[in-house]
Design brief:
Helix content is 81%, strand content 0%. The chain is mostly helical. The protein has one domain.
Length: 73
């Protein structure tokens, strides 16, 4: 991936932080955090599929590994 594209994506994702803070002040704090992560996922996940050089496996065994990695993080 090009460095300028990666830099732009990082700025785009971190720009949602003030939005999450604003939403957390008006609504429940969890909504602000969850909404920020959801917005970031909507932006990043399609880009991973487009720019990934290795195929992204969606086999059930691979999905179990992805779920375990999410729980550990």
């Amino acid at each position: 991936m090009n460095v300028s594209v990666a830099y732009f994506l990082v700025i785009l994702i971190w720009a949602t932080t003030p939005l999450a803070i604003q939403w957390s002040g008006h609504l429940d704090w969890f909504f602000g955090v969850a909404a920020r992560i959801l917005i970031s996922a909507i932006i990043v996940i399609p880009l991973v599929f487009v720019f990934s050089k290795t195929p992204f496996s969606l086999k059930p065994s691979a999905l179990k590994v992805y779920a375990a990695a999410c729980l550990a993080g």
